[in-house]
Model the fold of this input.
Amino acid sequence: MDTTFLIALLKIMGINIILSGDNAVVIALACRSLPPRERKIGVMLGAGAAVVLRIIFTLAIVWVMEIPYLKLVGGALLFWISVKLLTDEADEASVQESDTIWNAVRTVAIADMVMSLDNVIGIAAAANGSVTLIVLGLCLSVPLIVFGATLIITLLQRFPILVWAGAGLLGWVSGSLMVSDSGWHTVFGAWPHLVDEAVGGSVGVVLVLGLSWVLRKRAASAVAAEVAEERKAAE
Done:
């Protein structure tokens, strides 16, 4: 395996791990009421279903992205996902626990399908059309997510910089994806620096982190103002 392949594989694993914290929580919630032995089986089967479904969906996205201008759409959507990662919080409270293995697997599979659009788009973009990378990246990272769910979630909560790093990685992928679109080349081909993937990726990182920081500051200011008003009214 050459360096380019390894870097792309690490990108896919990083994206999947950063974006799959909520999926890991779903698996834990769905299986938490099962007996210990059945819980392990349910987690393994749920993880297997997640791998198979993500491979199918990701390959479909890769094929669709070969159509001109759709990489621009995919890149823009991935940019939004990157910002949302830093400015929004997932809510898994509605996931119900299951009393049988098959109910748990069904819950996990359905939830994973609904929640994994961001993972699928990010992985498809990072793989750059390589089926081998998609299959390897998912097969390696999903077990890490499932069996290390508690550790991963704890690390992400304890070291928020990891989430920022993940969002920056997504910003890089979204920017480089957009400038690799044939439609982008058609419009900006006369300016080589505007079709350079390194430039596009760098701009993506700056925009994602900068916009997320501004939005978080605004949200914090709004909350502080609301608290101040409530205190004033209480006095």
